[in-house]
Amino acid sequence: MQQVNRPSNIGAGNVRGGKGGGAGKDPRPIRDKAWQATAKGSLISFLVQTGYNQVISMASLSPPSSKDFQSIFRFLYARIDPTYVFVKKFEDEVQSILKEIKYPLADQITKSNLMSVGSMHAWPSILAMLTWMVELILFPTTESHLLLQCLDQLDNQGDFDDGTGINDPTDPEKIFFNYLIKAYANFLEGDDDFELMDAELVHTFDVKNENTVREVERLKKENERAEQELDLLKRGESPLVILEREKNSLQLDKEQFIRYIQHVRAKKPNLEESIASLKQDLEAAEKEIASATEERAALQHTVDSQEVSPADVDRMNAENEQLAKTLADIATKLELGNQAVWKSEIELQKKMDQIEKLVQDYNACAYRLGLYRAETAEPVLAAELEINPAASRPQDITSIDMRNAAKPALLRLRTSYNSDLHAAQDDAIALHESLDSLNWAFTEKEDELAAMESRILQLGEQCNEEERHIGLSIAAVKDEIGQYERNIQRISIEANGSLIQSQQRAQKAAMEYEELSRRVTEKRGRVMEQVVKSILELVNVHMHVRSHLAELKQMAEKYHAEAVAEVEALP
């Protein structure tokens, strides 16, 4: 039954679709899955047959969203009362509508159920209510519903049947039949001049024929355009072949990335071992520094406990100068050696990186050439090329004998590719003929390229801006590094000056040591007493401040509570 288009005075208040409202239990097994499936099928069938303008399926009703439920309810109620307009809040209107149409279980459809339609406890009741509305529309029990159904049927029938059985007014037989009726009526009235009617009939058929001719021309053009597209598709390369080729290329790239990841993971244990070794060396160096510090303290204690004569002081100064000079020479040689080793390691690492890059390029080219493809009957090479830097013999560095195995295989492959090249050149001559058919696509691609170039320019400007910011950051870092280097030089100069001054004061310190030792012993006792006294006073002050803070906190909380009470007491 289609929706009534003419204005209707049948309101919701005139529809009576049940026995009366009630809050009893629903006699239908609304919680049963089989019943729910049947109800959903009936609802979907009714909506599809009555012209529901949205996509509906079993999945969309398991359960539906609030938006879908509102759309379905509005559509169903429009079948009951086409003149009704929803103006209030949807949940409130649904409850009032259910009471108006006398839904027996209207009290069970609460506002919370309408707001959460998809919940497990609400959806069975909502589905039962929608099923009841469908039954009310299909099997009306009131005179108003019968009248509504009759009006729908009249709207669907269109014009009154004139006995021809033809409902299309543009049908030639219907046009001629109407002409005969009109001419016969004029003949009965005594009018024998039918020239005007004949001209009108001829004009009607001419207009109809013009529309038919235009439709035929349009169909011919569409047919020609479709044939051209079909011809282009037949002459061009199959999209499936292109996609298959791209898929193979991407699969090869994926395999290459997987092998590279495996290669990097294979390096990871070596790097972890190197890190562990460096940590052990660092711990050993720290232990040596601690041992040297203890030894130095013991030597210093020994030196401090000995009586040093002026001659011993001179001798120690001379030895100190000689040791310092020797130490400087050794440090210079060590630095030169470290630099040489560092340069050698850098050169070695560069060479290894270059070799690894060449090996990766070789393997990539080999995969692109199909040397390792498993789908070939007999692969050109058995395995990919790998390097072993730790090999003891030169011939063991590479996993493949490049001279005796790889080179002959590549020569055979080159011979095969040359023959394929000649065949491909012959095919290229034929492919040039299909180049003209691709020119139309080239124009579209040019527009896309222009858009992409503008996008590239924007990205280039953004990249330049980022580079400028990075340059400023690098300059700031370089300035900071320079400042650190100047500070290091200044500290080094100050340290050298302090060393000379310390050597000059060594003699004086030796003479003053005994006096200072005695004074230090006496002062240590006094200082310990003062420290103990200060600590006790500090603890007392801390406890005093803590108690005052607790009192202040209590007072603040009290004042705050009083202030809150006063504010609340204000009118």
CATH class of the domain at 12-157: Mainly Alpha
Distinct helical segment count = 12
Compute the average pLDDT: 76
Please, what is the CATH homologous superfamily of the domain at 12-157? Answer: Ncd80 complex, Ncd80 subunit
Indicate the proportion of strand residues: under 5%
SS content category: mainly alpha
Q: What share of the residues lie within helices?
A: over 70%
Shape: flat
What report would you give on this structure?
It contains twelve helices and no strands. Residues 1-23, 142-151, 153-164 and 374-378 have low confidence and may be disordered. The two termini are 65 Å apart. It is 75% helix and 0% strand. α1 (33-49) crosses α5 (123-138), α2 (66-80) packs parallel to α5 (123-138) and α9 (239-305) runs antiparallel to α10 (310-369). By secondary structure, it is mainly α. Among the domains are: 12-157, Actin-binding Protein, T-fimbrin, domain 1 (Orthogonal Bundle), CATH 1.10.418; 172-233; 307-400.
Short description, anyone?
The chain is mainly α and 571 residues long. The protein is 75% helix and 0% strand. The protein has helices spanning 33-49, 66-80, 90-100, 111-115, 123-138, 143-157, 172-188, 195-235, 239-305, 310-369, 402-433, 439-569.
